[in-house]
Structures are given as structure tokens and as C-alpha cells.
């Protein structure tokens, strides 16, 4: 959390009273929210169907990583902008330089450090575990203040037996994240005037068309709209839904070009309950 002139003891107490950094799933409140940094150009928020609440992120990289977490089936839950409030257990491990990072430069107001994401996931044996990840640009990693803050984070999480790591932009599969963002909107089907039953019925029909038709996917979707006498674009929404719900599998690391056939896009029906490879816990 960056130091700034408007960080006061009153605001610190207010954040605590509001329960920021507390709660699980839909009751969790991130320490920082978009409204706190309204002037930050890349701040954004989106509704998470996994968490059933709004997610607050402040850079493109944070957004891309959050989308990976949202889509990854091994991820059960995630918390963004997670505050490291209780530093008492690690104070004896910190030298004078690191201790100074825990307070404001000219005050005794706690300087709350944030880990970008705290993730709860399940491994191949079905056992739950947690990992914490902070996102940083590579250019920041040679700056002394950043190095010191990351060291404090590392020790904080080590004390709690949680794996801590740093993620840089070049480690994030951007095209995959963009594809995820493109398909996830379909899960909010009510925004488009559809019920769950409507979407499931259309999905079953389109699923078979895609697998059996040799035409370009875009042509199949247009034919779907005409046959069902629905608004143009409905087929595209259902196609996104099929991907978002993994009823069909497609290569998410490449751009989804609707001028290609289903075979060219590598589209296939999902078989059984196989898990998608974990793309975020590297």
C-alpha cells in the first residue's frame, strides 16, 4: 500500500471498523477498493461468479491474473489486496531498516502492506492449500524500498506456512486472460434476458452443431440465430457460455478466431471431470 498524504490514523481505524481484509468468499472486503484510488487510470472492478462479489484491481496485470484465478478450476477462492495487519509475530526477525517500513515516515500510523492475492486451491489429491502472490513489474524489483517490503511479506507468509511468490507481467499468459474475460460475461445471462433454462437448452443445441459442422464457427453461429429466430448475436453468447462452463474445450492460449472451423480452433467436447492445468501457481 503506497504511502500518501491522506493516509491517517482515522482512515486506518475506519478501514479496520469496516472489516477490510476480513471475511470469506462473498463477505470478504479487500483492503483497498477502486473508490479509494479513483484517479488511478488502470483501476477496475468486475463481478466474480466464483466469489459472488466485486473484485478490485489496480493494474492490467492484476486484472489478467484475477481472471486466471477466476477460471482455474483448482482455485476454490481468492482474496485481492490482502492486508498484512498483524506483524507482531515477525518483529524479532526484522532489522531496524525493515522495522521502519512498518510505520509512516513521520508518524506512528501503521503502514499496511498488501499482498496482491491470497489464493485457496485444491491439489491433485483433493487437499486444500494456500499460496500468496504479489504482482510487480520487473523494473521495480531492483529498487531498495520494494525489495525491503517484499522481504517483510516473505517473512510474514513464511511464519504462517503459506507459499509466497512474486509474479511479473511476462509470467502472465495475457491472451488466455483476454479470452477468459471474453467468455465470462456469458455467465451473467440474466443481463441478456435469458434464464438458466434458456441458456442450457441453447447450449445443448449449439454444442452438437459445432462438433458436427465443418463450416467456420462464425457461420455456424449465424445459422443458429436464423434457425432459432433469435436476436443476432445470441449464438455468439451461447458459444461463449459453452467455453465459460467448459462444456466445450478450446485452446485458450490463442485468439479465438470465428473465421476458423471448430476443428481449426481445436474445439472438443469435455470428457469426464478432468481438471484444467493450473496456470497461476507457478
Strand and helix map with partners:
Blueprint: H1 9-17, E1 44-48, E2 53-57, H2 60-71, E3 75-83, H3 96-100, E4 114-122, E5 128-135, H4 144-159, E6 163-167, H5 174-184, H6 196-212, H7 217-228, H8 234-244, E7 248-249, E8 268-269
Parallel strand pairs: 5-6
Antiparallel strand pairs: 1-2, 3-4, 4-5, 7-8
Helix pairs in contact: 2-5, 5-8, 6-8, 7-8
Quick take:
It is built from eight helices and eight strands. The chain is elongated, with a radius of gyration of 22 Å. β4 and β5 (128-135) form a beta hairpin.
Provide the CATH architecture of the largest domain: 3-Layer(aba) Sandwich
Cα(first) to Cα(last) distance is 24 Å
How many domains make up the 3D coordinates?
Answer: 2
Strand content: 15-25%
Task: Please work out how many helical segments DSSP would assign.
Answer: 8
For this structure, the CATH topology of the largest domain is Trna Endonuclease, Chain: A, domain 1
Q: In what order do the strands lie side by side in the largest sheet?
A: 3-4-5-6
- The residue fraction in helices comes out at 25-40%
Q: Give Rg in angstroms.
A: 22 Å
CATH class of the largest domain: Alpha Beta
Multimeric state? single chain
Descriptive notes:
By secondary structure, the protein is of the alpha+beta class. It folds into two domains: 9-171, Trna Endonuclease, Chain: A, domain 1 (3-Layer(aba) Sandwich), CATH 3.40.1350; 174-269, Winged helix-like DNA-binding domain superfamily/Winged helix DNA-binding domain (Arc Repressor Mutant, subunit A). The chain is 33% helix and 16% strand. The chain has helices spanning 9-17, 60-71, 96-100, 144-159, 174-184, 196-212, 217-228, 234-244; strands at residues 44-48, 53-57, 75-83, 114-122, 128-135, 163-167, 248-249, 268-269. A four-stranded mixed sheet has the order 3-4-5-6, sandwiched between helices. The protein has a two-stranded antiparallel ribbon with strand order 1-2. The relative contact order is 0.11.
Amino acid at each position: 500500500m503506497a504511502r500518501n498524504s491522506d493516509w491517517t490514523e482515522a482512515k486506518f481505524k475506519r478501514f479496520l471498523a469496516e472489516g477490510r481484509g476480513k471475511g470469506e468468499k462473498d463477505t470478504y472486503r479487500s483492503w483497498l477498493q477502486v473508490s479509494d484510488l479513483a484517479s488511478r487510470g488502470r483501476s477496475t472492478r468486475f463481478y466474480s461468479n466464483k466469489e459472488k462479489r466485486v473484485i478490485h484491481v489496480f493494474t492490467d496485470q492484476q486484472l489478467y491474473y484475477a481472471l486466471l484465478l477466476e477460471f482455474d478450476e483448482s482455485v476454490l477462492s481468492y482474496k485481492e489486496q490482502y492486508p498484512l495487519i498483524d506483524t507482531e509475530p515477525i518483529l524479532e526477525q526484522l532489522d531496524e531498516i525493515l522495522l521502519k517500513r512498518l510505520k509512516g515516515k513521520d508518524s506512528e500510523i501503521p503502514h499496511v502492506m498488501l499482498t496482491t492475492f491470497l489464493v485457496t486451491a485444491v491439489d491433485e489429491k483433493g487437499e486444500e492449500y494456500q499460496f500468496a502472490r504479489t504482482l510487480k513489474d520487473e523494473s521495480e524489483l531492483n529498487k531498495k524500498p520494494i525489495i525491503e517490503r517484499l522481504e517483510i511479506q516473505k517473512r510474514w507468509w513464511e511464519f504462517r506456512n503459506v507459499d509466497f511468490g512474486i509474479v511479473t507481467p511476462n509470467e502472465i499468459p495475457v491472451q488466455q486472460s483476454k479470452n477468459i474475460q471474453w467468455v465470462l460475461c456469458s455467465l451473467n445471462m440474466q443481463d441478456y434476458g435469458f434464464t438458466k433454462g434458456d441458456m442450457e437448452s441453447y447450449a445443448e443445441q449449439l454444442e452438437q452443431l459445432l462438433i458436427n459442422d465443418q463450416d467456420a464457427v462464425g457461420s455456424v453461429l449465424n445459422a443458429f440465430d436464423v434457425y432459432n429466430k433469435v436476436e443476432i448475436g445470441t449464438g455468439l453468447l451461447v458459444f461463449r457460455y459453452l467455453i465459460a462452463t467448459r462444456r466445450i474445450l478450446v485452446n485458450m492460449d490463442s485468439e479465438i478466431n470465428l473465421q476458423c472451423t471448430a476443428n481449426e480452433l481445436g474445439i472438443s467436447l469435455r470428457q469426464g471431470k478432468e481438471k484444467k492445468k493450473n496456470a497461476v501457481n507457478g
